[in-house]
Structures are given as structure tokens and as C-alpha cells.
Amino acid sequence: MTASRRSFLLGTGATAAAAALVTPGSASADNVVGYGRPDPEARRFTLAVIPDTQYMFDLDRGDSAPLKATLQYLIDHQKSENIVFVSHLGDLVENARKSEIDDISERFEVLDRRRIGYSVLAGNHDVPDSRLDDQRGRTPYLDRFGPQRFRTSPTFRGASTDGYNSFHVFRAGGKEWLVLALDWRMSAKGFEWARSVLSQHAKLPVILTTHELVHDGGDGAAVMSDYGRRLWDELIKDNDQIFLTLNGHFWPPARATLRNTAGNDVHVHITNYQDRYYGGGAMIRLYHFDLDRRVVDVRTLSPWLLGKRSLNPLERGETELTGPADRFSVPIDFEQRFARFDPPVLPPAQPVKDVLVRGTVAYWRLGEGLKDLSGNGNDLRQTGQLTASDEHHRFAPSHRSLYFGKTGYLSTVDSAPVNRETFERGYTIELFLKLPAGFDHPWCGLFTKLAPGSAAGKTGDDPGEPIATLNVAGGGQLQWAVFPRNLPGISTNWGHEMSYETWWHVAVVNDGVRTTMYVDGSPLLRNPSTPARGISTAGDLWLVGAYAYDKVVEKSLHGWIGDMRIANRPLDRSEFMRSKAARTSGTD
Fold it and tell me: Which of 153, 155, 100 lies closest to 123, judged by CA?
């Protein structure tokens, strides 16, 4: 690394931090309340969970207002929070009386009328003799919440012959998810039925809901009850589809991550607030799934209290619970977690002709050869040791790449037309990039002119810098620094730090006036507004996987480059070198 380059980089703000200010409530429509259906394709969605409501439906000692407020909240926020399903965890009522069951049944009719998908299940307080399993026969609970209730439900898919166990399928994030709603005490027939449901829907991820499974073993760590151990041994541990379990019954709330027979995580959560003020006030858990962030964010709140104009002293501390047991995030790499039973369908390699859009100057499938597949003669030659690899971005046109191990690099041949190209009408440079774990080789080049700015008559900034360079700074930060045709000095675009061991699509697009850098189809922040027209040239070579200073190759790449394409016009994001599957999956 030359001293002049280091000075130039520091002077242009390589280490500066940028902060964005957002006025609460002004930047997003997510807080807007209004009727509407959830979006089944959106990659962010919410599962709403209602735990034990028994004290609100307790002979003449209850109050249905809190649950009424909760259900109305779910209706009001169905669109804004993309609430795709609602699960009750049992103990709807306190004494299993017909009058209590009738009362809460009437409250749930608001969801029936709006055809909102939801499930219920029997807790020990919902059935007259809690010692009996799901073969107990007819009860007031079954009369009101049996399979007949869900005939018009958009998510109901079936129930066990006894009627106490059911399953639902909802669509969210562009795929189907299955909810098993199991009686608080299943019989051998119940277990057999549940296993048959899983077998018949072997590719669906499963959320298991029941009344009893785990309880707090201390410090918020969940441990299994005796019946929970049976449920784990006979159903959960050998069925890899089950990735999340939810139960009530005990308090306080707790959670744990267990390992199933396949070696995968199962997240087990207990949520119950009947011990708190006003029997929990029909408090709910909102499980916000974010498939792109690979996380489930969990919130716990009381819509009933949030909707009150004034609060008494006890109510003020119950509107939303924010302790570690009630507000937390669960990291889940959904694709990896579900790969064993529902492996992702990767798009096949694309024919070269599909990649050669209008204006393509050069197209290289690194790892498959050094030939310019555009037919324009911009072939490459190799210096040093490089390794072809099957590593590739899942949506890359080809399924190969080239590994650069800090020593070797490529360069265009002397006769390559791209060496003399000035890109007067704009340009696009795009490639697929992956940096290794522990990347510690900053300022290595991706695509760089060998000649310095001085060779093109430039006198501004540091003329020893290359005429143009796309490189990787510390932390996986991208930099595009170019001496444009219309300026004596350098115009620089900066990226952000990117995760290692992850494939990224990188694009630099100049529309003839201004340059924008994109990562995975998303425009970045630090793109200069000063006009920067074309790329100066001295008729020199381009380097692939190396950086040069004053015509001396200084630093080769440490990482992988997959497909790479150069165009002599600005490409629209829809033309980026990514498959149709990438765009429709929400990864652009």
C-alpha cells in the first residue's frame, strides 16, 4: 500500500460514518391502521398468539372487554402488520362451563365473519374432566370450537376424528406454513393422527401449538414438563418440520432452543400472562417473521390497555412488556433450517445468449475459462495461481467461479477493444462477489485499469492512482474510484461493509452523467452527484482481481468472483445479470 493512496483514501472519507435521521411515524406506512387483507407473498409477516384467557371468562367474575379489544386490534392491523394467522394456546375459559364457552365463542365470531385464519385448542380448564385425553367425547368446548366451526375458514385443513386436534395451512412469505393445534392431552390415536398430517405435508415447515409442553426452569430458560417430554419424544424430535412450538398453561414466560434428531434447532416457547394484572388483559405475542433478515422478532403487548384514554397505576406497567422474556429476536436461517425436508429449488445455469443484453461489451464466466463470451474479443489471460470453483451465487447465470488467493490475477489481452473504450454514453460493470471468513486483505482490486491517471493526462488528486478501480476496502466495503473524461480528478462511489461468506451481486452504473453503485439490486447511499462522464483511457489493460498503483500491480483479490459483465450503456436493474427467479423471490 502506497503512502499516497492511503492519504487519498483518508482524505476522501474512507473512515467517515454516516447517520440517517428518521422522524417517528413519518418514514413508513407500517404504522397505518386500516382494514385490508395481508399480503401472502411479502417476506415480512406476523403470527399473532393469544395465551390463556381463562380469568376473563370465569362464571360471573370475568370481563370479555380485553379479548374483544385484542381481536379488534388484530383485525385493524391485519394489513399494516401483515398478520397472516392467529393462534390461541388453550384455557379459553376457567370452568369449562357452557355459559363461559358460549361467551368466548361469541367473541371469536368477529374473526369468522372476516374469514381470518385462526386456531384454538383445548386446555385443561376447557374440558370438564382434565384427566381424560382427546378421546373424552362431546363437551361444550367441542360443540363450539370443533371442526364444524371452521367449515368456512380459509386456513382449516382438517381435524382428528375426535375433533380435538386440528391443523391449518396459511400462506406467507411466498410459501405455505402448517400449524398443528393439539389438545392438551393427546391419546395414542392423537399422536398417530398428528404424525399422519406431517407425513402428508412433508415439505411444509410446522409451528406446533399446544397447551402444555415446557415451563420456566429458572432465569427464563424453558424446561419440559412430564407430558411435554412425551410430546417431544413421540412427535417433535423425529419430525424435522417442527421448528417452533408455542404453549401456555404455566407462567412466567420462558424459552429454549433444543436440538432434534436431525441436528436442527427447535425453538420452544411458553407464553402466559394470567398471573398478571387483570388476568393478563388478553395480552398477545406478535411473532414478526422477516425472511430476508433471517429472524423472528417477538413483541408482547395488551391492545386493550393500549387503546385506553387513561390508565390506572397498575395498568401503566402492562401496556407492553419489554423484558428479555417478552421482547426478543430469534435468529433463523429459514432456507438452511428447512433444507432437509424442503430443499430450495435453484434455477439452472442460464444460456450465454440470455445474458448478452444490448450493449454487452464483455462477458466472462470465471471458472469456466478466459474467453469473452460476448464475441467481442475481450479475452483474459492469467498471471499466477487461481483456482476454479463450484462456489456460486444461487441466482448467477453460471454455476462456477474463480478463487483468488491474494497472489494471482487476470488481465485483458493487449488487443482487447475494451482497453480503449471510453464509455461516453454510460456504462455498467457488474459481477458476483464472495469474500472469505476473516477477510483481512483490504484494498484488493476487483476490476482496475493498469495505467494511472497521469497516463491519461490527469493532474488532480493523486495522478498515480489507476484511471479506474473497483476494489474492496476493509470490512468488505466497496469503492469505485474513476478519473472521468470531464474531470481532472477522481470521482468516488463508496459502498458499505458487507458480510463475509456471503455471495453478493455488485453493479456500478453510469447513465452518462452520474454513477450509482448497487448491491443486490439496491442503490447505495454514497453516490456522488457531481457529473462524471465516461472513463478516461490510455489504451491500457484492465485487471480482474487486482489493484495497481502507478502501473505496478500491488494487491490481488482474496475471495471469489463469479460471472462478470461489462456494458457500454446504463442497464436497468431489471437487466442486471440475475435470473428471473431472483427478482420474483424478493432478493433484488
Answer: 100
